[in-house]
Design a protein that fits this description.
Helix 3 packs parallel to helix 4, helix 6 runs antiparallel to helix 9 (273-298) and helix 8 runs antiparallel to helix 9 (273-298). The protein is elongated and about 100 Å long. The relative contact order is 0.10. The chain is built from nine helices and five strands; from the N terminus they run βαβααβαββααααα. It has helices at residues 19-37, 45-48, 55-65, 95-105, 146-160, 165-202, 215-235, 244-271, 273-298; strands at 12-16, 42-43, 66-73, 110-115, 139-141. Strands 2-1-3-4-5 form a five-stranded parallel beta sheet, sandwiched between helices. The protein has two domains: 12-162, 3-Layer(aba) Sandwich (Rossmann fold), CATH 3.40.50.10140; 166-298, no CATH class. Helix content is 57%, strand content 8%. It has 303 residues and is α/β, with parallel strands linked by helices.
């Protein structure tokens, strides 16, 4: 899992395209993928290179930072020529060819994306440096099924470039929830040990209540549990559908368990203060373990 503080260096997606063939699709695809993976993680030359910068140097740098390269292939992709009538793919200085060749050579995942009715070029139609492109599985991208096709592409890219916007939010929520649960367990243990220690010092065999145990102290662990349950509730809509039930169950256990313990503590504390301490500690630990188990089943994986 990719946490916000340990994202990989190669966490960008490079969109390779020819302007005469797919510029409109490239811009639209860039905007759509940004909603999945976040701002500044999608690169295309029109918006990614500032004026005055060395084009070739920036391209090489962006390829080095990329976890995947998307090659947009339109119907005219392999046949487009320059002003002299020579096919651009055969030009050693052609940036589209150079980008693809560099990506294939560096073993970066390269995903051909066929636009509308475009077909995958044959190996004998490509320069030798691009021949390997024909062995890569292609995805079709159509205007009529744009949302479906882009979602499918985003899922494929997420395998090679982990850390979508939603996944990063889920990772952060998971980290905070786990921190709260472990803090809750630590607080409950400290409160219990403090009370027992003072009880032993006082030599009082019946009233742990007089040994320094307070209602406010007992509430701290359960406040942390409630906050962790709330984070699971917030994360639930973003988690894949088959796992959401575990997130909702974790929230329910946190809330119902806390409420039940509070009711029991209120009723029993006046009559049996020593027993209420033991039950309070035991209940908090059971709830923490249960919520942790349910959260592990959610996997906090984006839908």
């Amino acid at each position: 899992m990719v946490f916000p503080w340990n994202k990989p260096r190669s966490d960008k997606i490079f969109i390779n395209y020819r302007r005469d063939d797919a510029s409109g699709f490239a811009g639209r695809l860039s905007d759509t993928l940004t909603s999945y993976f976040g701002r500044n993680r999608i690169f295309r030359d029109v918006t990614g290179i500032d004026y005055g910068h060395d084009f070739s140097q920036v391209i090489d740098q962006k390829l080095d930072e990329s976890g995947a390269v998307v090659v947009l292939i339109g119907e005219k992709w392999s046949a487009i020529t320059d002003k002299d009538g020579k096919r651009r793919l055969d030009d050693p200085a052609d940036y589209v060819s150079r980008e693809i060749a560099a990506a294939l050579k560096s073993n970066v995942p390269v995903i051909p994306v066929l636009i509308d009715d475009a077909t995958m070029p044959r190996a004998d139609e490509l320069p030798e440096t691009l021949g390997e492109l024909t062995r890569r599985n292609a995805i079709t991208l159509t205007d009529e099924r744009w949302d479906f096709d882009v979602t499918r592409l985003a899922k494929v890219l997420a395998i090679d470039v982990p850390g979508s916007v939603v996944q990063r939010k889920l990772s952060l929520l998971q980290s905070l929830a786990l921190l709260l649960l472990f803090a809750s367990g630590a607080l409950a243990t400290v409160v219990f040990c403090k009370a027992v220690y003072k009880w032993v010092q006082a030599g009082n065999e019946t009233l742990l209540k007089d040994a320094g145990f307070s209602s406010l102290e007992s509430a701290f662990p359960f406040i942390a549990i409630l906050l962790a349950g709330t984070l699971a509730l917030v994360a639930a809509p973003m988690i894949e559908a088959s796992k959401r039930k575990f997130a909702w169950a974790a929230t329910s256990l946190a809330y119902v368990g806390t409420l039940g313990t509070f009711i029991y503590y209120t009723i029993s504390n006046a009559a049996m203060p020593s027993l209420s301490l033991v039950v309070n500690y035991g209940a908090s630990m059971i709830i923490i373990v249960g919520v942790l188990a349910l959260m592990s089943l959610t996997a906090f994986r984006a839908k």
